[in-house]
Design a protein that fits this description.
single chain, about 140 residues, alpha+beta, 3 helices, 7 strands
Length: about 140
């Protein structure tokens, strides 16, 4: 095998591996979005009212207005589901302007394991967080 052939095969293998990883991630995000949509529907059916969502500043204390409504999924109010069915990580740069005018939080791609790759004890399956929020722990 020539060096060029080996390099071409290696490049194709790397591209195939990356494509497979992206397909797995897209499937995971799609499944997580289904869970979120089901949660929003069930929360509405159960009469669990959404609330104003606030974000924690990267530094300092207090909370920042976001203009979003939804349901917090963790006691520390770090992640939430919006009434739009989107997943939000509620952290933002602070500062005087943010405190006065609020902040814009963009939705994140949801994962089936929230906090995956974080510190020990901080990751939890999305389905479990949603069940707990609905009060249907199993």
């Amino acid at each position: 095998m020539t060096e060029q052939t080996w390099a071409d095969q290696r490049k194709r293998a790397i591209l195939a591996h990356a494509a497979a990883g992206e397909a797995r991630r897209a499937a995971e995000v799609a499944r997580a979005r289904e869970l979120l949509a089901g949660f929003v529907r069930e929360a509405g059916e159960r009469g669990i009212a959404p609330e104003e969502l606030t974000a924690a500043p990267h530094r300092g204390g207090g909370r920042l207005r976001t203009g979003l409504r939804g349901w917090y999924l963790r006691a520390d109010r770090s992640v939430a589901v919006g009434t739009d069915g989107e997943f939000y990580a509620l952290s933002a740069p602070g500062g005087l302007r943010a405190r006065l005018t609020g902040v814009t939080i963009e939705p994140s791609d949801p994962r089936l394991i929230v906090g995956e790759g974080g510190r020990d004890g901080e990751s939890m399956p999305l389905a479990e967080l949603l069940r707990r929020r609905l009060g249907t722990e199993s």
